Amino acid sequence: MNINLELPDSPNTAALIEHEILEKDCYRLRTIKVPPRIVYDIGANIGFFSIAARVLWPQAIIRAFEPCPETFALLQQNAAYWRIDTENSALALGDVRIARDQRSDGSHYCLPGGAVAGATLGQIIGPLAAEPYLVKLDCEGGELVLFNDQDSLDALALASHWAMEYHPNRTNIPAGRAFVILAQADPRARRELVTSATDHTDERWLFWSEQG
Fold first, then answer.
1. CA angle 180, 121, 47 (to 5 degrees)
2. Which of 102, 108, 134, 151 is 20 to 30 A off residue 91, Cα-Cα?
């Protein structure tokens, strides 16, 4: 697995991602009963989730999206062996620029206006998607698109399974309100607090669709 050794915190960040995805199964992959034909990895980082999905579902089409050019270069290297399609783009209503999170050397987020292409979840999946598909989102606030675009919310609700990290400090929508919107769109929605802070600076939630 290729990581960016120029960023001091990258080894720790990579180890944390591996622990959350593979050991804790934070995206509830082991609960999935119907194998997806297509996997959308939105905010793929260096590819841990996409590689885990490839191991679980060898025949699936896996599409990995990562906006940060430096991280995307590493994603491409990691994805080549695993037959994972990659795209240097962001979950956003328009093109974006990349900003580094000063609290972590391994994290970036997007701001409006820039050279990196943006697309909504509705645009990525399209209106005619009929195959069972899975959506994973960890895009440091890019999930705001879901609450500003009905097609994207519909696309999420139609997924056979979806899971996302939610960052209230990036979207400025409280987690409780965001969850109500998701649950109205998809009654399967469930939630779990991952980290909390009194000033909400580091608050992070996991939202996912519970399998029946």
1. 105
2. 102
